[in-house]
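Hi W.,

Here's what went into the run:
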Amino acid sequence: LATYASSPERAHAHAPTLRAKYALARLLIYGALLLWAFISLFPIYWTVTTSFKVAVDVTQGHLIPWVDFHPDWKGWRSLGLSPDTLFETSTVRDEFIKRFENSILMSVGASFLAIVIGSLAGYGLSRFEYKFGPWRNKDISFFFLSQLILPPVVLAMPFLVLYKELALLDTRVGLILVYTLMVLPIVIWIMRDQFSAIPRELEEAAFVDGLSIWGVFLRIVVPLALPGMTAAFILSVVLCWNEYFFAALLTSTDAKTLPVMVASQTGSQGINWWSMAALSTAAIAPLAIIGVFLERYIVKGLTAGAVK
Amino acid sequence: VAQETANRRNAISMDNSSPLAVGQRSRRASDPALVSRRNAGRWLIVLASLGFAAVVLAQALYASGTTTAGFANWRPVLYAYLLWAVALGAGLVMTRGERGERALFLLPAVLFTVAMVIFPTFFGIYIAFTDWNLSSFTGRQFNGLDNLRSMLQDAYYWNALRNMVYYVLAVLVQYAIAFGLALLLNAEIRARKFFRVVFLLPFMLSPVAVSWMIGKSIMEYRFGPAATLARHLGWDSPAFFASPWIARFSIMAMDAWVFIPFMMMLLLAGLQALSKEVLEATKVDGASAWQSFWHIVFPLMLPVSVTAVILRIIFELKLADIVINVTSGGPGGATDTVSSFIFREYRDRSNVGYGTMLAEFYLLIIIIFITVLLSLVGRWMRRYTATATR
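Here's what came out:
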């Protein structure tokens, strides 16, 4: 076999085998791709379909709607979100909507705050020379990035105590601050990278026109950096939306987020398959939509600075 | 005006300690209006700091019961901190002019980080040496090294630390799979965009929802699809969370499902950044696919790989939500992570003092581990590239 592979003449003579080899390679590539696509999609498919199942369909492991089970609104009805219950009062739905609002408000609020603080810092670090004792720009950047390694448990309990004293426990503001902290290192990292990519000549021209440092930043640089900011913003929203640890510790009733609601359902009533499936579907739907339509930005945010 | 803009341009591109900037400052210092403004700025900072310190002191005295006048909670101290921050910013601009304006860019991030990370971490070290239990009414008491002593004897904590070693090692398997997927996506395929979006989706989903979707329903013993499949494949009792190693593998699999896309995207971006000429050259040389991968692509991808793996290890060390929601650390602590263990220590026993000691100790281990890892990897990379270019 070794001699066969190493002699090009014979390989040419056997063009059909080469073509067969090529076809086999294609088959393997697409097979692997489809297999992983199935692994990625099946849990989502399973969750969405289970939210339309009744008890029998779950226990018998039915998989395909209309073929081996008949879709039913049972799961969505228990959430108060099926067509027939949509206009009636439902405490579960009120609860769900409240958690949903909390999640949106907190992830958007924290991401916005992180973008503001992080863009300023990122711009400063990419343009000016700072000196803070023995620390230069590189050390300051590393200081911010190093907070990534800080595990949430280290901060969770001091926060619990401090927030209690500050009357911030179970408030939206409190959680927004924590989430800002959580995504800030990533945002600074992305934004510094984005600002470094913008040529300085533009700013220097604006200085000649008499703009101040802040004028240049707000009128010239920010509009140019908007795509990068969007990427950082969307990535932050995703990370905040999915956060569970801090939310579980620092909230109880008012500021509870959607992941905490999902988690508490599994604990209290055993497993109520259809309603859990409906709840999970509702919790992941916004992100699945973001993932499908804004994938470009997520990838941009993830890979900024990491790949040079 | 031309002089001024030239100065500004210099100031932007140059270090402040350069002779030109010094000359500028001394020239400005002689201007009386500037001198008074600088003095005012200095006073502003001093007064604001004194005011902030006074508020903290007054509230501390009130909280300790020494004085009777004070606020109901510490919230006003937070507002005082914000005011102080604003005054500090204004003062910096007044005293240092353009340098102050530049410092203003970094100031919010620094002050935010100091208030939200540095202070709580040090406060945590204080808590770690108390017997603070939120459910006890006796309040907190300094208990010296008791927490440390009980930590050393806490078999469950060390068990959780050992589990973290397994979880971190699992990252290498995730890396191999992610690299394979990145190569597939980088090959000449149809519907690349579709596969990219689909492969990224798991990363977007909340780990809590994933715990339910996969851990509690698909892997459910009686009628979860994964269990059914396993029965068809000949595993009679597919209990994914009953025996220690199988439970650990199940958690690792779920964790991998969520986070492989993250590494995959980094590696894919790295692959796309490789120069096409190098890859074409290997094809012309007649190198087999395996050879060109192992001798060309893999070494070129090493920096990206190292970044991806280290970032992923850092995230892996925080692993908690899946474990908390699926197994609560069971069976017998086999799947416990440090984070989930401390989480239960707090939630079930309200043991804040002890829990914080465990967390701070964990942070220490992480810092040492990551530092050693970074320096080892750095040294190894230098040697590797040196031999590769020779």
